[in-house]
From TrEMBL:
<dbReference type="InterPro" id="IPR011051">
    <property type="entry name" value="RmlC_Cupin_sf"/>
</dbReference>
<keyword id="KW-0342">GTP-binding</keyword>
<dbReference type="InterPro" id="IPR001538">
    <property type="entry name" value="Man6P_isomerase-2_C"/>
</dbReference>
<dbReference type="GO" id="GO:0016853">
    <property type="term" value="F:isomerase activity"/>
</dbReference>
<feature type="domain" description="Nucleotidyl transferase">
    <location>
        <begin position="1"/>
        <end position="278"/>
    </location>
</feature>
<dbReference type="Pfam" id="PF00483">
    <property type="entry name" value="NTP_transferase"/>
</dbReference>
<dbReference type="InterPro" id="IPR051161">
    <property type="entry name" value="Mannose-6P_isomerase_type2"/>
</dbReference>
<dbReference type="GO" id="GO:0009298">
    <property type="term" value="P:GDP-mannose biosynthetic process"/>
</dbReference>
<dbReference type="GO" id="GO:0005525">
    <property type="term" value="F:GTP binding"/>
</dbReference>
<comment type="pathway">
    <text>Nucleotide-sugar biosynthesis; GDP-alpha-D-mannose biosynthesis; GDP-alpha-D-mannose from alpha-D-mannose 1-phosphate (GTP route): step 1/1.</text>
</comment>
<dbReference type="GO" id="GO:0004475">
    <property type="term" value="F:mannose-1-phosphate guanylyltransferase (GTP) activity"/>
</dbReference>
<dbReference type="GO" id="GO:0000271">
    <property type="term" value="P:polysaccharide biosynthetic process"/>
</dbReference>
<dbReference type="InterPro" id="IPR054566">
    <property type="entry name" value="ManC/GMP-like_b-helix"/>
</dbReference>
<feature type="domain" description="Mannose-6-phosphate isomerase type II C-terminal">
    <location>
        <begin position="343"/>
        <end position="456"/>
    </location>
</feature>
<dbReference type="InterPro" id="IPR049577">
    <property type="entry name" value="GMPP_N"/>
</dbReference>
<dbReference type="Pfam" id="PF01050">
    <property type="entry name" value="MannoseP_isomer"/>
</dbReference>
<keyword id="KW-0808">Transferase</keyword>
Amino acid sequence: MAGGSGSRLWPLSRSLYPKQFLSLTGKGSMLQETITRLDSLPCLAPMIVCNEEHRFVVAEQLRQRDLSHSGILLEPVGRNTAPAITAAALLALEQDSDPLLLILAADHAILNPAGFTAAVSQAVPAAQAGKLVAFGCTASAPETGYGYISKGEALSEYIYQVKAFVEKPDIETAKQYVLSGDYLWNSGMFLFKASAFIHELEKYHPEILSFCKEAVEGRSFDLDFVRLDEAAFRACPSDSIDYAVMEKSRNVVVAPMDANWSDIGSWQALWDINSKDDNGNVITGDVLPQSSSNCYINAQHRLVSVVGADDLVIVETKDAVLVANKNKVQEIKHVVSQLQQQSRNECLQHREIFRPWGSHDAITEGDRYHVKKVRVKPGEKTTTQIHYNRAEHWIVVTGTARVSNGSKCYLLSENESTYIPIGVPHSFENPGKVMLEIIEVRTGSYLDEDDIERIDVPDKRA
């Protein structure tokens, strides 16, 4: 499951590029790390469920690591985890007789992958016997941001009956849970037969099942993407798997998992799990800390110097900087809300925007000009398009471009340029073996992205 907006990790996480696509705990993105973690298990290629607006980011991240998959399932609208899992289960039943489904969130950190592998392997017999297995992670601290699972009777060496699912507690209750040793963090990871889940859903929330069946039956295909029927999925009730099934079913068991797990729900959580310098600072990027301690400092694009700071979160990106007290990071969501109310782009996406063919990054802009750096992958081509309010100048800085400019087609090499008049169909492609980089200068009376008519693609949203 690779949906969600991750607003609590702004400004790194944006609604169009949320935390599951960021590299926060390892060399790869959290999505890439989640899929790679499956290498030690006898899993088939995973099915990815994501928001439609994230489809190209997901496809590109899989391509970067040469990660195979069995389909990228697109949610036309967000409907929480129960409908997403239901649609995936229905598709899985079409591909296999009755597979075991391991349900994972793409934005969780697991610092002890061996513990993860062991817990999943130990839970397989219970899932094969028809149980819905929830993974409860060892509660190492009194966290108030997690739900808990109360263990009941031991059914085997590794599996327990679920006594109760518990909502996020206050701090004193959380301390009691940890001291008792009978409570586990509810990780949101599950293992069950597809048929077992569908059977329980039909008992406890048949409306979700009905709309998801309709959405799957009406699906369409676009490249590697599976598009659910929008009308049916939009009509589906929004509910979590916990509320829809797990908290109601009598067929649920819990498997303890000692994997040093975190859902990275805040900058404080990210500081907790990362390695620190001698002063307790977590540092990423070009940072010069002086007389500072217990800070999280992330410099993405330039030097950040911090003097005399304690317990701060400092995050620098190309277009926004966050400075927050580490104990107040939960209030970042209010900043994001203000940005949304003001219709500011900083809550939506980063300056660099990814497309199937590459990316473009805003460099500078004025009232009648925008300057971007455009990158095109080898063998890829932009869509043919027309702009009615702007002209464009292109300068090749790396690689070779094959340009279509009206009725003309020609090559541009490094340090060569061309001009695209208003109203002329145009595109460029990279016929070479190295990344093509172009500086694009837009000039005109209206320069926003919606001044565009694409004329050679079936998917107008590409």
